[in-house]
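Interim report, section 4.2 (structural modelling).
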Amino acid sequence: MSATSTTGTTEPSPDAGAPDGADALAETASQTTVDHRLTTRQMAEFVAQGFLRFDALVPDDVNRRGLEQMAALEMGRFLPDGPHPPTTGTPISACYPAPSAIGDYLRLPAVAGIIDSLVGPEAIFDHDWTHHLKAGDLNGQHLHVDAIADSADPTFDVQLFWFPHEVKPGEGGTRFVPGSHLRRVRADGMARYQRVVGEKHYSGPAGTVLVFHHGLWHAGQPHAGDTDRWMHKIRLNPTVAQVKQWNCDDLVSMQNEPSDHVFATMADDTVAHIFRRWHPWHGVTDYRNDQMARARLWRYLSGDPTYDVDYYLTRLEGRSALKAPATSTPDPTISAPPASPAANDAAEGTDG
Amino acid sequence: MAERQQLLYLWLLNSAPDSNIAGLAFYDGTDGQGPQLPDKGDDPPYANGVEAIQDGWMLMQSPPPVAPTPDQLHNNAYLEYEFVFERRVQVHVTFADDTS
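Predicted structure of the assembly:
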């Protein structure tokens, strides 16, 4: 997927105010390449919250045609000659070839940049679905997780929710729980939670895209409005390590030291600063465990096996190294810092 | 008249009944005939478990303290501190053979 685009903006020349003979220089048009990948700050927000939101990202024309294609896909998905979704495993760049509004949406430079940043440039299609709520449908889903059979390693899929028309409050916008994505749960084990403090109910303008970590708790909501609500959800898998796939220009300045510690000394405007976000439904233990989970995920994403926030992993790893081999029993919750990112990936797969 | 049960699940931030609410669920065996939860807009109906008791809810279950297994010491899963309350409410019930 191409996450860059070239714009024809004319940037002012240093000689713009020069006398005769300098006009040609002053009119020099520069082609500016825009990098649409996410920033380190956005990636850290995704790790801390489990989602990102991009309001009115998709142009009106694509939204309008998208509604038509979603309706056609809903009607024909299971018909022999109907329009079908891509085959599972199809590279994202080959999904929904032109002419296709869904393909146009997926290949928007801004959308491609989001996908590339989170699941790499060679992501593949898992599945998609057109979520159609009829006007006045007051049934709501139980809170759930789409990921049913996932491992404990830090790799993850993403799900993109595209709302091609405005969704007003109370009109079926998806309910979701920020900060729920790194918990070890079964798909429907949280169904009884009718309300979680701090949960969100999506509403927003046409063309908005929500991007979820596959583990984020969510549910479809009752739709009290008078027009049908449509949404396209697509799940994508990575095929390459999700390491530094975003625009890392700001990584060096934001990557805090492992010693950065809220109870000692800490720097401002760092990844750790973002990872200290305390969701209002988290108790103290939840919060600290979640910080450890965020740090583990960031070790994978940033390729830094020593990364930490508030010293939780580093403290345990330091003590773990003191145990005498002949008398100690391996503690499955602790692993010593691996020597390389690749080793880290393997270690994280079994780390509690 | 017949007795029906209302259930209130409160998930609190820690094991103390007076700690704040993380989540809640309400199941109404009176089908709307009994008293409903206070409507406080975006805020939960009660700030904590004790407020629920003060509003007439009877505690049926509080979460037992369970030590995590070593491999789960640093993992989060479900909301841990689940308190279950009930109210028993007299409601009018019409039975199929009720000719009174």
